[in-house]
Amino acid sequence: MNKRLLRISALIMVLSIWGCEKPNELFRAPVVGIEQNNQVPILIKATNIGNVRIEYQKANKSLTNLTDWNKLTDANAFTTNLILRNLHSNSNYRYRVEFENGHYSEWFMFKTFPAAEQSGKFSFIFSSCMREKYLGFNIFNKIEQLSPTFVALLGDQMYGDYDGNLNTIEQYLANDSLRQKMIEDGEVLLSDKTVLQAFRNKYNRVFDINYQKMASSIPMMAIWDDHDFGRDNSDGTYPYKKEARKVFKENFPDYSFVEEDGGIYYKFSITDVDIFVLDTRWHRSPMQNEDGKVKTMLGREQLGWLLDGLKESTSTFKLVFSSVPLNDYGGDTSSGRAGYDSWMGYKFEREKILSFIKDNHIQGILMFSGDQHYPSAHILNWQYPLKPISQFENSIEYSLQNLGTAVFDFSASPLNYKRATGHPLISENQKNPLFSFEIFRAAWGIPKNTIEDEPPVIGSVYGLAEVNTESSPKRISVKFYELNHETLDMVELYHVGIIF
To answer: Of 58, 225, 258, 57, which Cα lies nearest the Cα of 126?
Structure first.
């Protein structure tokens, strides 16, 4: 009798637990992706396994649309991409997430891109470098208030090798003697047990509520750099790059990568403008290797894809996003290795790209980057003399008709990190077309005699690009902004205008 009562009590307890099971819900807000072909991917991250879909409708309209149901699994950290289809251009939509148990998220809003394959106007924010320990100022609210068409995050969205134990895990897994010593010393009680878990938890910590509010309402374009790919100045030899790729895909919407299981480069278009997004890590040769034919940043396939795409593009403006700058002054030399981490350390391949552009008479190429921790603007592939059509103290304007196959390089960073300086300007090379012509660099990005123990200044910097192919002449405006720590306002530093 007692055994029977115990069984009944146990059954009642199990049933009560099932009945009180907490419904599935969002782990954090959705992330809106890049629209193409009237479709938008939205990344969902939930708290548990199950099925999920999105209900969406045009703002102020009652007609409801539903995505397909997708499965959330532990293997993908309860993430999935849901595709919103048959969207109208330049329109506001609202959406919410539905779980199979009948639970719904709150409503979110976003705006679709202008009509494709025709002239139009759009804008975007670009920057990089957001470290967990420096997220005190809410830069993302400032960006959201600007309502750009999309936001371009150009790498180091988190610092996997800083502020955590990713490096310790790597050492523990790779070094038998060190692992044994750590066991003997009792140092193996790590909060993250695997490299995969360490990557995941870094993203979870850095994507705070302010980032989530922005990313759920403004389409996000992203690429990685060294710290969210692996370690400082990482290259294609990094042993955990597959884990890094997996976790990147768990935190950003589907970008239709060219390579199914390799580099994460891709292309998309807005209005009549083609946009190329580069992966400067997956195929990269080590920075300390001798520069020459064998040394590469992009790898053979990605390089061919880029050159073919630039040649075939009929866009007036062709935008290229690279995590590292193209210019000759922003190259990192840290990590105790020779060479430079930026394109100035891969000049043979850079020259191959620039020569191809010149030989094929390709005009209107603008590159956008981050990484160097100060804002700057340069021109490469130029002809002497460089003549702007107007110039003032904090602004300048050029006509592409006067520049031939010149390539602009705009770099903005950090979003939340210590400010840095670049390499000294070589004044004689301002008249040397084989070198980067410097248009602008923030004053604090210029090397000067400083006290080594001087406390670092945390900077928040972004660039705002506004593209207008409806106007005559067609125009791009690039403005650099920095946080004023006293007023907490974003202050315009410099403005570059380009017409064609």
So the answer is: 225
CB 393 within 8 A of CB 442: no
Choosing from 111, 141, 161, the residue where a domain stops is 111
Q: Which CATH number does the domain housing residue 87 bear?
A: 2.60.40.10
Closest among 252, 277, 251, 250 to 264, alpha carbons compared: 277
pLDDT in tens, 94-148: 999 999 988 999 999 999 999 999 999 999 999 999 998 887 778 999 999 999 9
Q: Is the pLDDT of residue 1 over 80?
A: no
Range of the domain at 57: 2-111
Say yes or no: 298 and 192 in one domain.
Answer: yes
Measure the CA–CA gap between 372 and 341, rounded to whole angstroms: 10
Please provide the size of the chain in residues: 500
41 and 142 part of one domain: no
Burial class (CB in 10 A: 0-12, 13-18, 19+), 40: buried
474/394 same-domain check? yes
pLDDT value of position 178: 62
- Burial label, 83 (beta-carbon count in 10 A; 0-12, 13-18, 19+): middle
The residue to which tokens 């990190």 are assigned:
417
Tokens of 129: 């470098």
Spatial contact of 131 and 415, defined as CB atoms under 8 Å apart: no
Q: Is residue 116 part of a domain?
A: no
How many domains does the chain fold into?
2
Residue among 260, 286, 233 nearest 245 (CA): 260
Interstrand relation of 79-84 and 108-111 (parallel, antiparallel or unpaired): unpaired
Report the CATH number at residue 457. 3.60.21.70
Q: Pick 10 or 118 by higher pLDDT.
A: 118
pLDDT on residue 177 = 72
271 and 177, same domain (yes or no): yes
Q: Which residue has the tokens 């084989």?
A: 434
Q: What is the pLDDT of residue 11?
A: 44
Q: Residue 166: its pLDDT value, please?
A: 77
